Amino acid sequence: MRYNPLGRTGLFVSELCLGTMTFGTVGGRFGAIAGLGQKEADDLTKAAIDAGVNFIDTANVYSAGQSEEITGQAIRNLGIKREDVVLATKVMGQMGEGPNDLGATRHQIMDQVKASLKRLGTDHIDLYQIHGWDAATPIEETVRALDDLVRQGHVRYVGVSNWAAWQIARALGISERLNAAKFVSVQAYYTIAGRDLERELIPMMRSEGLGLMVWSPLAGGYLSGKYRGGKDGEGRRANFDFPPVDTARGDAVIDAMAPIAKAHGVSIATIALAWLLHQKAVTSVIIGAKRADQLADNLAAVDVELSADELKALDKASKLPAEYPGWMFAMQGAYRAKMLDQPKRG
Fold first, then answer.
1. First-to-last CA distance in the chain?
2. What is the number of domains present in the chain?
3. Which of 118, 124, 268, 291 is the most buried (most CB within 10 A)?
4. Quick check: 125 pLDDT over 90?
């Protein structure tokens, strides 16, 4: 297991992060993904920690708060020192029936951080993330509320998930102007079959020094290969067809991964995760599982070293089609970019 700095901080997190969306039995939008009780969660958490994972991600909306409760209890049940784990959670989703029971408002952030701390059974959250874009709340209000939490010591670092590049850049500018805590990380969807964030988000993150946490790295199970060719398959994606996948492109990518997986003696899913771990922009890949064998298969990705030829083949199969202004950048700026890559003397 490798450990990477979280953005421009001195905090190091494991390259694989344990996702806890499967923890809990309360229904809701993501009910098809959940279903695990405390004992099963304890077992998976122990396996991840034993493998070197020091990063755990949850959210207040997962199983209506039950995921946070189970996650915090698992840490205590296993006797894990609080300082040995980097604990991340999120706020923004609907947590009640009222008009103010959701969003990235000061009202919701201040209420929900207290609730999350209580459910997790801790006095601080290492990474507190805004879970999505709130069109009704000014970014400045969100930034000021998060800064207050950092200054109060309830939260150590702040991040964001599922925002556009321009929205994040604007928030960073507001934070700079207000001398407020800045986002240090972005949690975003990224897979070898869905590389959209390479157009705007990754260049922005590279420019601003933000870390990248990847959610749904197997495209909701699609990259296991069992849904190839339009098969109904079983498990999560059969009941919850999310995130959306261009199946023509996805099947071509799976076809490219299959011989590589065979050569390495691992599953296609493991190769999909290994590909992400070879991408410079990636800080940590969030893995979730319902069974021990699924988790073990995911954890095996850290031991896969893909060759230059294998990476080239996978890139060819999954590369995004050129779009403006990207193709103009390549035509006009390629020479200048190449100048930056000249090797140093000595």
1. 32
2. 1
3. 268
4. yes
